[in-house]
Amino acid sequence: MIPAVLPTYARAPLSFVSGKGSWLTEADGSRYLDLGAGIAVNVLGHAHPDLVAALKAQAETLWHTSNLYRIPNQEKLAEALVDATFADTVFFANSGAEAVECAIKMARKHFSAAGHEGRNTIITFAEAFHGRTLATIAAAGAEKLVKGFGPDMPGFKHVPFGDIDATRTAIDDSTAAIMVEPVQGEGGIKPADDAFLRALREICDEHGLLLIMDEIQCGMGRTGRLFAHEWAGVTPDIMAVAKGIGGGFPLGACLATERAASGMVAGTHGSTYGGNPLACAVGLKVMEKVADDDFLAEVRRKSSLLRQKLEGLVATHPDVFESVRGLGMMLGIRCKPANMDVVNAGYKAHVLVVPGGDNVIRLLPPLNITDEEIDEGIARLHKAAETIEAAQ
Question: What residue numbers bound the domain in which 93 lies?
Answer without folding.
Answer: 50-290
